[in-house]
Structures are given as C-alpha cells and as structure tokens.
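Hi Y.,

Following your request, here is the sequence exactly as I used it, all 127 residues.
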Amino acid sequence: MSIWDDLTREEQVVMTTALEECYLNGVIGDYLGHAESGGAVWIFGNDVEAIEALIPRFAEVVRGMIRRDLIEIREPMDAVWDHAPAMTTAEIEATLADRRTWIWGDGDDTRMVMLMTTDLADRLLGR
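Below is the corresponding structure, written out as tokens. Let me know if you'd prefer a different format.
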C-alpha cells in the first residue's frame, strides 16, 4: 500500500505541489484544472471565484497535512527555501487565512508561500 492510497484527492494535489517545491497559490488552480491534448497538457483553473470558494477547504487540508508532518510551508522572499525560517503555528494560521496566499495576482496581491515535503513524507514516498 502506498501513501497515495491514503490521501484524498485534495491531499494528493497538495502533496504533488510539495514534491514539485511549488507555491500554495497554484494548488487550488491545479485542483480545478483539466487535461487537454490527450492528457499531454494540464490547464490550471483560473476562476478566482471558484478558487476563493475552496480556500477554507484547502486551508484545512494543508493544516492537517502539516499536523501529520507530511508537508511544511515557508515564505522565502527570494524563492530559496532555506532562506526562510520555519513558521510558527500562529504564522501558519495567519498565512492559511490570507486570501493572497491562495490566489495568483500581481505584486503585493500575491504571497509566495512554498510547500515542501518533510523527511517523514519523503520516507513514506520512498525518496
């Protein structure tokens, strides 16, 4: 049995984003996306209202995965994971509650919060 079998579809999208060392503002768009060209191209969903409606759901998913020590989030200002400190519980809560964390925008409208798998997740994934 694989860790993937134990994850919900939402958790799988979050875990994939963490494996790709990408940002939270792409998670919901990826979840809402669809395949084209026979599956060769993935088109992210970009309906802001649909993304906003799913923010509470995905905030809870990420919160739960952090509690289970599967992922970590940080907000590096230079896109280098190791240049950002680990977040406190209060910082995590504030970050997950901030709309700018989840929606891709311009300039100050977007927070660039990265996801990364933890050592535990990497072991469970066989990495």
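The beta strands are 34-36, 41-43, 71-74, 114-117.

Thanks again,
Q.
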